[in-house]
Write a structure and sequence with these properties.
alpha+beta, six-stranded antiparallel beta sheet, five-stranded antiparallel beta sheet
Length: 625
């Protein structure tokens, strides 16, 4: 899943070409920015604005610079950002990244600051300074813009392999381990390309275990002989991790088990802060820069008894997520170029882990919500067989469709199939309000039309209260303008609701449709007709009066209730229910059981569009026995 840029525009004029895009402040933004710049250079080349032979290196450098500037904005601002780029008449490339958090300036590498003085500042802008002819920061009220200008001179770099979107290619962009002189080359274009491709690989992962697996493959054996990752539990608030590492890698597979046991006995922890208060030790260990780690010589064998190891805290959004430890045999200390490169990689790993954990939290919340919004089981009705199909299109969030089938007492059973406008939390609020009230009103003895009357008023009252609360918050907050989607949302509900009363010889069904696809009644001879008349959506009109209709279901009669995910399933410009398509499909189900009717309609709906449904799908079949 990629971050979706908006407001993109490209134009050409006497000054060359330019583009503009808005990106969210998420870990996916750097990958989107790189794609935009690559596309811009390809377009300029096609239009003859740049020389394809001479611009290849400029395009690579521009992509790396844009990636670093956007990553800087994500890490240090986290707000929505605007990215603009242009090609000047001279052939120079200029990029600007503007965010909305100007309080903290990026560090200027020319000022000679120590590279690890602050937890989350990496070396990205130092690398920008290496490639850019000039760069700087511009402050305005409420915004900060970091810009860079790359000159047009330079050509194809014969030592710089083209980036590829695979793990093996990303690893190949780093030099071979322990190659003479290689360490000091890592600050050049190869390191930038490596980091850019690592960002692409990590940003697309929504599973933290896969993120750690990719981390090991990126580091070993290219940057270190071995590495390990400790991940902290989200509920943990500790200065160190403790316990066994989450994952361990070694260039030699037969060393992993022994190394893992040794690392478990000596987990990363704060340095011996003799005389330093525990709070200060915790702050010190909250840095992202490297800390010395004891060499696990006994686990690596006599030939690798000596070496250097460093521990990096993985921090995202000011919160420590774990620790990365790397080791290389035969060294007294890691070269500064390598430590800085791994710190930059660690920042990206932390962002990816943070994003994966956020996704997992949202998925868990959505699953809990979904379970709470739907019945644990549908009721069994004497003399009636039922079949249900429920397929939310978004597996990771609450659906807007819901259903229910429950006993209401006095020999009555009630059923409902509904569809809330929208999805996600807003839909969950309406379903969480409507479904319990349906059950309560039905069990209190209210009949079908009265239930809809009261539920309609309940939704209108709830919307009014939400609007009043929003108005009070706006006044208390100093009249801050309300952004689109921030205010109270109108809560419309389409609902098919009915009551079943079995009796000798059949089932009496009283039902009403409020803005919902009409139910269809299938007779054993294949005749199909609608079983209700259309009425207004719930939550729209004050004091609306709803009416109900009663039909008799004889043996073999089937009632089909669906949501608009069935009727409005699209195939090009056509919908499934065009020309009474649903009625024709149901007519072909004469003589089938409730389960087979439900399955056939589901299959026909899926086959109609050729791909996966783009809307939630729910259907209920009730058949008199």
């Amino acid at each position: 899943m990629a971050a979706i840029p908006t407001q993109r525009e490209s134009e050409s004029d006497d000054c060359g070409a330019r583009g503009l895009a808005t990106l969210p402040g998420s870990p996916l933004a750097p990958g989107s920015a790189r794609a935009l710049v690559r596309a811009a250079f390809a377009e300029w080349s096609d239009r003859g604005l740049v020389d394809p032979e001479r611009s290849a290196r400029l395009a690579d450098d521009a992509t790396a610079v844009v990636s670093e500037l956007v990553t800087n904005a994500v890490v240090h601002a986290g707000t929505e950002m605007e990215i603009g780029w242009r090609l000047e008449e001279s052939g120079a490339f200029v990029v600007e990244v503007r965010d909305h958090h100007p309080a903290r300036a990026p560090r200027d590498p020319a000022q000679g600051e120590a590279p690890y003085d602050t937890p989350e500042h990496g070396r990205g802008l130092r690398l920008v300074a290496t490639l850019a002819e000039s760069w700087g920061v511009t402050y305005r009220t409420g915004t900060k813009t970091v810009w860079a200008r790359l000159s047009a001179d330079g050509g194809e770099d014969p030592d710089g392999p083209a980036p590829a979107r695979t793990l093996a290619a990303a690893e190949a962009l780093a030099p071979q381990p322990q190659r003479p002189g290689a360490d000091r080359d890592w600050l050049g274009r190869g390191a930038l390309s490596f980091l850019a491709e690592a960002s692409d690989l990590l940003a697309g992962q929504l599973d933290e275990s896969l993120v750690t697996a990719l981390t090991g493959q990126l580091i070993v054996p290219r940057l270190a002989d071995w590495c390990a990752v400790w991940l902290e539990d989200e509920a943990t608030v500790r200065g160190g991790d403790g316990g066994a590492p989450t994952r361990v890698w070694h260039a030699s597979e037969n060393r992993i088990e022994e190394l893992s046991r040794a690392l478990e006995k000596d987990p990363p922890c704060p340095r011996d802060g003799t005389g330093v208060p525990p709070l200060e030790q915790s702050r010190e260990w909250g840095r992202s820069g490297p800390e010395p780690y004891p060499w696990p010589g006994d686990a690596l064998g006599p030939q690798d008894a000596h070496g250097a190891a460093l521990a990096y805290r993985l921090i995202a959004g000011g919160r420590p997520l774990g620790t990365l430890v790397i080791g290389r045999c035969g060294l007294q200390r890691f070269p500064d170029e390598v430590t800085g490169l791994v710190e930059d990689l660690g920042r990206r790993v932390a962002l990816a882990i943070g994003a994966a954990r956020q996704y997992a939290r949202q998925a868990t919340i959505s699953a809990v919500l979904q379970r709470g919004l739907l019945p644990g089981a549908v009721a069994e009705i004497p003399g009636v067989s039922s079949a249900l199909v429920y397929e939310p299109c978004d597996k990771g969030g609450p659906s807007g469709d819901f259903y229910d089938l429950f006993p209401a007492g006095d020999g009555r059973w009630c059923f409902a199939v509904g569809d809330v406008q929208g999805k996600g939390p807003e839909a969950a609020v309406v379903i969480g309000l409507a479904r319990p009230w349906l059950r309560l009103l039905a069990r209190e003895g209210y009949r079908v039309a009265d239930v809809l009357d009261r539920l309609n008023q309940l939704l209108l009252d709830d919307a009014t209260e939400a609007a009043d609360a929003a108005a009070r918050a706006l006044v208390a907050g100093g009249a801050r303008p309300v952004a689109p989607g921030d205010g109270p949302q109108t809560r419309f509900l389409s609902l098919l609701y009915g009551e079943l009363t079995p009796h000798d010889g059949g089932v009496r069904c009283t039902l009403a449709s409020a803005g919902h696809p009409l139910p269809l009644l299938l007779r054993p001879d294949g005749d199909v007709r609608t079983a209700a008349r259309p009425q207004t959506l719930l939550g729209v009109v004050e004091d609306e009066t709803y009416t109900s209709e009663t039909i008799e279901l004889g043996p073999g009669d089937s009632l089909l209730c669906v949501t608009d995910g069935v009727t409005e399933r699209r195939s090009g410009s056509r919908q499934f229910d065009d020309g009474d398509g649903l009625a024709r499909a149901l007519s072909g189900c004469a003589g089938l059981s409730a389960d087979l009717i439900a399955e056939r309609i589901r299959r026909l709906v899926h086959d109609f569009g050729g791909g996966l449904p783009e809307d939630d799908l729910a259907l209920l079949v009730l058949q008199a026995e």
